[in-house]
Amino acid sequence: MIEFNWDWAFAWEVLPLLLDACLVTLQATLFGSILAVVTGLILALLRRSQSKAVAYSAYWWMEFIRSTPLLVQIYFLYYVAPEWGLNMSPMVTGVIALGLHYGAYLSEVFRSGIDGVGKGQWEASIALNLSPYRTYRDVILPQALRSMIPASGNYIIAMFKETPQLSAITLLEMLQLAKIMGSENFRYLEPFTLVGLIYLALSLVASTAVRQAERRFPKEGFTLS
Amino acid sequence: MSEFAIEFENVTKKFGDNVLFEDFNLQIRQNEVVSIIGSSGSGKSTLLRILMTLENIDGGKVLVNGEPLWHRLHNGIWLPADERHLHRMRGQLGMVFQHFNLFPHMTVLRNITEAPIYVLGQSRESARAQAHDLLRMVGLEDKAEAYPAELSGGQKQRVGIARALAMKPSILLLDEITSALDPELVDEVLEVIRKLAAEDAFTMILVTHEMYFAREISDRVCFFDAGKVVEEGPPERIFNQPEHERTRAFLSSFLKAPSSNT
Ligand SMILES: Nc1ncnc2c1ncn2[C@@H]1O[C@H](COP(=O)(O)OP(=O)(O)O)[C@@H](O)[C@H]1O
Ligand SMILES: [Mg+2]
Questions:
Q1: Is any atom of ligand 1 closer than 6 Å to the C-beta of B163?
Q2: Nearest CB partner across the interface for B119, out of A118, A121, A128
Q3: Sheet of B228-233, strand order
Q4: Are A120 and B164 inside 8 Å of each other by CB?
Q5: B79 has which bridge partners?
Q6: pLDDT at B180 over 60
Q7: d(CA B195, CA A209)
Q8: pLDDT in tens, B145-159
Q9: What is the model's pLDDT at position A2?
């Protein structure tokens, strides 16, 4: 029989430290998501460009990013980019890697959300002579947003769960810290279990929030004043 | 100003290998009210969509108030219109759609003020004041804060008309604007168009299946068939003494089944 000898004292000792490290995880997720939303939106718009060359470039960029492992991209930015004079801290590297990686996924979500808005809305915008900027900002995106929420939310939660990969470039996030604590104290059970539980709790909270956001979002969309 | 609001000169329009218009010609005078009738697929919507720059052309020229719509002159050479040229030309045209195409997430007021504020650069106050005037004109002054989903079809279409008028076009394009409405809601929309036609301040092209209405308000009626103007003239003549067999067949099919051909 396998023996579980859970040490409460040790668990209580490492928990606050892990929660501190969790802030690093959350920070990487937050800034990574912001970057992902921005690059996703830009890619989605580029793919709708009149210029075939631009649209194809955006498409191939997306395919390329989605077809290579996140870890390879992280290593590339961390170890290869400095050879081109691009020196970035592990956190900045991590945020950029997560942002670009998930931006490629989000672009597909945004694109299909935009495609879901009826042709008549575009035609009315042209007939009213609205600029492309106004058309997207005031007419198309507000209506596309609702359908984008669930899938975008799931990708951001997935990103959150991928942050341990940043431990590979020495970012001191939760998993990295748990590993260090484990090896220093010769006890892995408590740190790793706690990391798992923290991820579980936050993922559950986040997916509930996504579901709420979708439910609360006005069915027709809304526009900024 | 040019004598003609609209001129089609030898226009070609294809969809893939399908040629819809070939050597198509049509002239519409300033402030003329022209009804276009004809069976489904004859090219009526495409004509309006070319004018609204929703469809481009494959040959010939379209002039709006004497100026080419789909071409611009650059150092003595005609080039395809760029976005800037189209933007400038579109200001002269307004369109009302069969399915309204209102912005569902905006109030009626915002639907009407969006373009005047962000395209014409009107102040919020003046755009709103104008919108309220237009809503009064179409009989919906109490619906400014409603959302399109809260309106009946007839009300939606009256908002659609107000929204187009807010941009002060000189040419109004109306594509079967009562076809999607329940019969009892048709009149309230036609009433608004009747008023506009009486003002004699717009050039209007209306694609319609409301034959009595077309007859009442048009200066001229054009019967379309397979991308050609088969017959045109004053409404009395077209409706009372159509010359062409196909016009007669079309009109009699309408008398038999007034609502089957949309
Ligand atoms: N976007 C399009 N792609 C391909 N064919 C089209 C398109 N729009 C219109 N057509 C074709 O052009 C013809 C005229 O269409 P339309 O102008 O809508 O006719 P109407 O309004 O008189 O019913 C039809 O045969 C239609 O199938
Ligand atoms: Mg049509």
A1: no
A2: A128
A3: B93-96, B171-175, B203-207, B33-38, B220-225, B228-233
A4: no
A5: B72
A6: yes
A7: 52
A8: 999 999 999 999 999
A9: 65
pLDDT in tens, A72-86: 999 999 999 999 999
Residue whose pair of structure tokens reads 């933007």 in the numeric block: B87
Tokens of B27: 């002239």
List the single residue in A with minimal CA-CA distance to B166.
A128
Which residue, A32, A4, A46, A59, is CA-closest to A157?
A: A32
Q: What structural domains and CATH numbers belong to chain A?
A: 19-216 (1.10.3720.10)
Pairwise CB contact (< 8 Å): B119 & A123: no
Domains of chain B: 105-168 (1.20.1580.10)
Report how many Cβ contacts below 8 Å link chain A to chain B. 68
Contact A33, A41 (CB under 8 A): no
Q: Which residues of A, range 16-55, sit inside 8 Å of B by Cβ? A: none
How does residue B260 score in pLDDT terms, banded at 50, 70 and 90? very low
> Could you give the dihedral angle defined by the CA atoms of residues A79, A85, A91 and A92, in that order, rounded to the nearest 10 degrees?
-130
At B10 the three-state DSSP class reads: strand
Please report residues of A whose CB lies closer than 8 A to that of B163: 128
Can you tell me the ipTM of this complex? Answer: 0.94
Q: Does B113 touch chain A (CB under 8 A)?
A: no
Pocket test for ligand 1, best of B12, B19, B20, B228 (most atoms within 8 A of CB): B20
Task: Give the tokens for residue A224.
Answer: 């900024």
**Cβ-Cβ contacts under 8 Å for A144 (sequence gap 6 or more):** A110, A113, A114, A116, A117, A221
